[in-house]
Amino acid sequence: MDTHGVQLLAVVHETLGVSDFKSFFKGDVFLDLEKKFYGPVERWASFFDLLRFGVLKNGYRVYKKQIPLDLVGEGRLLGGLFVIGPGNQGIIFQYHEKEFGDHASLHDVQVAIRNIKKI
User: Any idea which UniProt keywords this protein has (predicted)?
Assistant: First the structure.
């Protein structure tokens, strides 16, 4: 990302757990209490979604990496990832979390970053 001049940013909807998150995240963190960045239709998961196989598998993956679990705060709001180009390029790539703990393909993100046009 550095070689392409891409900046890493995070947008969170609450302050709980942010200090712990920052120890794993090297970019700037912005607080969006009104959840405007999450779009007109927020994607919420139910507590029953915690029992899905994919969620359990993702939890085990995190456990193996010895990343501490954070069960504090509102954890049902699903997140995502955007690669946004400068100027009028807008959103080049977007990924919306489908269940707790899933993430975008690193390859897809790298391709999107390479497609950013320098202005």
Answer: Cytoplasm, Redox-active center
- The answer as to whether 119 is a domain residue is no
Q: Residue 96's domain spans which residues?
A: 2-114
| Structure confidence by residue, pLDDT tens digits, 64-117 | 888 776 666 666 677 789 999 999 999 999 998 877 778 899 999 999 999 998
**Residue 54 main-chain phi, psi, to 5 deg:** -60, -40
Count of domains observed in the chain: 1
| In-domain check, residue 60 | yes
CA nearest to 99, candidates 74, 80, 71: 80
**Best CA proximity match to 82, nearest among 28, 8, 5, 16:** 8
108 is a domain residue: yes
**Cα→Cα distances 13→23, 41, 59, 85, 103, Å:** 18, 15, 22, 23, 18
| Any domain includes 43 | yes
